[in-house]
Structure prediction request, 140 residues.
Amino acid sequence: MWTGELVAARLEEAADTLRRLPDTETKYRLGLRSAWPDVVRESVAVQASTGVRVRLGPPSPGAIDRLEATIGWLSLLTEAQRRIAWALASGISAARLARMIGCHRNTIANRQAAALRIIAGHLNQPAAQGAGACVQDMGV
Prediction:
């Protein structure tokens, strides 16, 4: 049974997975390439040095599959609901998003809750349960 909290968690995982996917175009835009493999540093050495950003590794294949399914859920929403749901899942605070849009943060929270209910309601329908059950077994 899908709930708004499960849908929100899946959207957050999708945003994190998308963030962790490698950007294959950057190496061609920079013009400088190396045949050497990337250096793997120990976490203690990385934390001790200054100016080095720690980047998480690439996402698992299962996370990428869940990302693809989750992105499809956004088509159930209106454009405004889609933007709000994805922005909050990406880590933008409700207060900051409210300032960007020009409304109160409670309005943002209400619109996000409505969007999550729409997605959860669709996933809980009998026709969608076959597909949702397979995806749900994958780690939600």
